[in-house]
Amino acid sequence: MIVSVAHNIISPLGMTTAENYAAVKAGRTELKRHDGLWNLPEPFTASLMDWKKVGEVFAKIAENEQYTFFEKMIILSAKKALEQTDIDPTSSKVLFILSTTKGNVFLLDKRETGFPQERVLLGEAARQMTEFFHNPNTPIVVSNACISGVCAQIEAMRSLESGAFDFVIVVGCDVQSAFIVSGFQSFKALSVEPCKPFDANRTGLNLGDAAATIIYTRKEKITENEWVACRGAIRNDANHISGPSRTGEGSYRALKVVLGDLNPDEIAFINAHGTATSYNDEMESVAIERAGLAQVPVNGLKGYYGHTMGAAGVLETILSMQAIDDHNILATKDFDTIGVTHPLLLSNQNQPTDKRAFIKLLSGFGGCNAALLMAKGGAIC
Amino acid sequence: MLKVYINPETVMVNGKPLEHKEKGAALLTELYRNHIGDYPKFFKMDSLSKLGFMASELLLQAEGGQRFEPREDRAVIFFNKSASLQADTAYQATIQDAENFFPSPAAFVYTLPNIVTGKDDFKPVCGSIAFQNGIQALGVALHIFTPGAATVL
After folding, report:
1. pLDDT tens-digit series, residues B86-103
2. B49 at the A interface (CB within 8 A)?
3. What phi and psi, each to the nearest 5 degrees, are found at residue B22?
4. Residue contact B131–A123, C-beta within 8 A
5. Is B131 in contact with A109 (Cβ distance < 8 A)?
6. Are strands A227-236 and A207-208 parallel, antiparallel or unpaired?
7. What 8-state DSSP symbol labels residue B96?
8. Per-residue pLDDT tens for A182-229?
9. Tell me, what's the pLDDT at A344?
10. Concatenated DSSP letters of A104-123
11. How far apart are CA B4 and CA B28, in angstroms?
12. Across the interface, do A101 and B112 touch by the CB < 8 Å criterion?
């Protein structure tokens, strides 16, 4: 089975998984309104890193000037996860997988002159990380819009199952910039207020900076407290280039695959994508209902971090594992009144649970959808 | 196994060259007019999507299979070196100058490289994306995507 051995989250809420989980459990967020940032004509609300603070931490391991903000985030997060283990990253049996939507895209701005242009290539950005750790393998970059974080974990599962690697380090990261914010603004997809996933008064999404890392390995014997990546599925319904399917087709099909013949009663919660756009949340409610999971609690974490894009699938998987370790279903921040057709079981309060499994859902532009079943102890896998 | 190969000057289907007059971007339009013709969304696509669309359409024609139908037995593994860099550069030009700031959703959506995998002629079970340098990517893809993997995704 494929087992998580260590993880880390770096976000505006903290530099470790523990700090992030404590902050989310306490209902904290760093989502703030920004007026005039990056010379953008319209204000926006986002959860952004304090780069001075990141630079101070990074200075202890390498020279700040050599790396972009994005590269510092992926190196720091991978390093903090690796430090919890005795894994030798210089081994050819260790593979790095980077999940990112836009990587160093801000380097396309003509005012950015500090780095070679080729660093805008996702593979080059990933190579900064593998070279830092002296890892001999070419890193895999997974860039599949908003579902990248689950796709990367599925790639990790396959890489380990193939026997070619003993450890896979999955790093998810995106760093916000004028490029990304203006693009989402042009789609009218952003809320100027903090986002409210699944709420009747939701008005769109917020964006956020984050990096998150999970290290996976392959094991024959699992102890009851180890986290197993059971099954993952990716389904594309090619519904519309930017609009999700009204029948939730792709998400429903992905859910059916990861569910298999599992009794839904085994599942503590579904951690939805929950971007707080009108269409996404509605589509997820349809897919969850169609999959026969309407009685399973649902939560969404974008109200704490915004949409962290390539990091989201990794970050939200880690927080969901932590929550179950803490016998907790995390609250959906600022949720008030259900605003989707199918009444999902959402709460704005943390709720107790003794169950030991969850499903992570993601959806993205281009009709892509992904689901991942994670189970503590792996008995139900 | 069926194979389609397209580069700026050559088109091969199962090892046989396909006749054409044009080169580069115009080649894709010529191929579309000669072999497809019933999917006008083609003209809205960016170059990466046009290339992926033509490759998958020619492959489906060679197979003689159904188009526009969801298939649980079919997957897309897509990899390249530069992701959506051409679309990214085009979008950046729309926001570069404060005086000439006109971000376009039609341009922004193609800054996602996976858009090419979700064309509705194909409706794959999955679109897996890896970006890195050529031959090593293929090596990684081959040992990850073992035969029959599509049924257990």
Report:
1. 999 999 999 999 889 999
2. no
3. -85, 170
4. yes
5. no
6. unpaired
7. S
8. 999 999 999 999 999 999 999 999 999 999 999 999 999 999 999 999
9. 95
10. TGGGGSTT--SS-GGGGSHH
11. 13
12. yes
